[in-house]
Design brief:
Elements (H helix, E strand, L loop, with lengths): L4 E7 L3 E8 L5 E8 L3 E3 L3 E4 L1 H15 L7 E6 L5 E3 L9 E2 L7 H10 L3 H8 L8 H11 L1 H6 L2 E3 L1 H10 L3 E3 H4 L5 E2 L4 E2 L1 H4 L13 E3 L6 E2 L2 H7 L6 E2 L3 E2 H9 L7 E4 L3 E4 L14 E4 L5 E7 L3 H11 L13 E3 L16 E3 L7 H20 L11 E4 L6 H11 L3 E4 L4 H15 L3 H8 L4 E4 L6 H18 L12
Helix pairs in contact: 2-4, 10-14, 11-12, 12-13
Length: 486
């Protein structure tokens, strides 16, 4: 079979996106997008009916006009979510998303049950927090025991879509490493976790973890008819969204990436696994057989956009400088782990202008990401930062990241890097080519290069001083601090 075009799918929190790529050249032949309905509710609730993803995927594929010419596909998906299904693969309740933080108590109990932070990190590669799948399952068992008892399948978002496409329950090491019941270092599900009293999950309810270049299955006739695809085309194992973006970039060890989305991430590709007991670094696996140590902040462009709406400003309506500091923890925070935190503004005076507050929001969100980046292992001392995500092309984001890092920046030409990475995987599993060969031919690393700016160390120090001073306050829930939705 000649492989001419492949599709990469990005099932994110807000939408499912599809890019169709010409295998020989890397040219983007077509794109499509289907939005999601997400329920954000009081008490840190964030849920989506998985059927929304399936319908959005159909919409996106039909928009491309390429459905009958797609020769292979793969899915990059939002990490950590919990999808519970019956024996026919039908969801029993809405999926709990990665940003659903109801399981913070269960996460603390989970870590204690494993013997404390160091033991938990050594075992699972990460300090499991409320975002991770295992604490979410513990929450479900404690709060919805009838649903838990009816569960015959436990999936991540991308797993559920892959199974719906192929009829086969599989996942990959990149996404499995965000569950806390699979070991990136040892490449196995962990009975030490699955048998805990708060978890008690039979491993047979979990998907098989397949190799990075293994075919997950073939598109079934039923899925093909609904999506407008040809039946029998191969499907890659898929992976988590950050691992997919790294794959799409052809990321080399030591080069850091900042992803400026609703939430923010900083990560790099590493050759050895991580085990950080502080919880700052998630010790994920990547989509190639290596590792992807990563820090994630809950509030990135979300915080900036909230301030622009509050003040009636445009995104680039910022002051040249300010002494105002904003800690942008509007939705609680994951790194640092402060699930009950709220946003704080310090240093305002009667003459403070709205444009200064907006600049402070940019700086606060950026400083949080860069503080995490400094903790990642083996970051090249002079390595540029690759900027991706929705904020990467924003002139103010570029300016602030440059000023607070002092590093040169690279802004890739491709914008849908998660979907592009999934397309790289689809091309590799269907043709047998090495992923690095594909990314080199497609020139996925091409982009704008921005020279280093002078490091504003005084601004960084001021933000960190305010953060340290308010840390105890942000550990305690305040009246009205629960998220009310977006």
């Amino acid at each position: 079979m000649t492989i001419s075009h492949v599709a990469g799918i990005d099932c994110s929190t807000q939408a499912t996106k599809v890019v169709v790529v010409e295998v020989a050249t890397g040219r983007i032949a077509a794109e499509g997008r289907g939005p999601h309905e997400v329920h954000f509710g009081e008490g840190n609730v964030a849920e989506t009916d998985p059927e929304v993803w399936w319908n959005a995927l159909a919409d996106a594929v039909h928009q491309t006009g390429f459905g009958d010419r797609i020769d292979a596909l793969a899915i990059g998906g939002q990490q950590h979510g919990l999808v519970v299904t019956d024996d026919r693969g039908n969801p029993l309740r809405p999926a709990m998303l990665w940003c659903d933080l109801r399981a913070s108590k269960e996460a603390d109990e989970f870590v204690d049950a494993l013997g404390g932070p160091q033991a938990a990190a050594d075992l699972a590669g990460s300090l499991p927090i409320a975002s991770f799948t295992a604490p979410k399952w513990a929450w479900l068992r404690a709060n919805e025991p009838t649903i838990a008892s009816q569960t015959r399948g436990v999936r991540l978002p991308h797993d559920w879509l892959t199974e719906r496409l192929t009829g086969r329950a599989v996942t990959d090491r990149g996404d499995a490493s965000g569950t806390a019941w699979w070991s990136p270092a040892e490449g196995r599900y962990l009975p030490e976790v699955l048998d805990l009293p708060g978890i008690e999950l039979d491993a047979s309810l979990l998907p098989e973890v397949v190799e990075p270049a293994e075919v997950a299955g073939m598109v079934t006739p039923e899925a093909a008819a609904f999506l407008g695809l040809r039946p029998g085309i191969p499907v890659g194992p898929g992976t988590g969204d950050n691992a997919a973006a790294a794959l799409g970039l052809g990321l080399q060890p030591g080069t850091p990436v900042l992803s400026l989305g609703t939430s923010g991430t900083a990560y790099l590709r590493a050759t050895t696994p991580s085990a950080d007991p502080s919880g700052a670094i998630a010790g994920f696996a990547d989509a190639t057989g290596a590792y992807l140590p990563l820090i994630c902040t809950q509030n990135c462009t979300l915080a900036v956009d909230a301030v622009t709406q509050l003040l009636g400003l445009g995104r680039d309506d910022v002051a040249p400088d300010t002494g105002v500091v904003m800690l942008p923890y509007l939705e609680g925070e994951r790194t640092p782990y402060l699930p009950h935190a709220t946003g704080s503004i310090v240093g305002m005076r009667p003459g403070t202008r709205p444009e200064e507050v907006l600049l402070a929001a940019y700086r606060g969100a950026t400083a949080a990401l860069l503080a995490g980046l400094e903790q990642l292992p083996d970051v090249g001392e002079d390595a540029p930062i690759i900027l991706i995500g929705g904020g990467a092309r924003g002139t103010t984001w570029q300016r602030v990241v440059g000023e607070l890092s002092g590093r040169p920046l690279i802004v890739p030409e491709h914008t849908e890097l998660v979907a592009l990475g999934a397309a790289v995987q689809a091309a590799g599993v269907s043709t047998g080519e090495d992923f690095a060969t594909i990314t080199a031919r497609w020139k996925t690393d091409a982009g704008q290069q921005l020279p280093a700016r002078e490091l504003q160390r005084d601004v960084v120090d001021r933000i960190r001083h305010v953060d340290a001073a308010l840390r105890d306050l942000n550990r305690t829930p305040l009246p009205g601090s629960n998220r009310q939705g977006r």
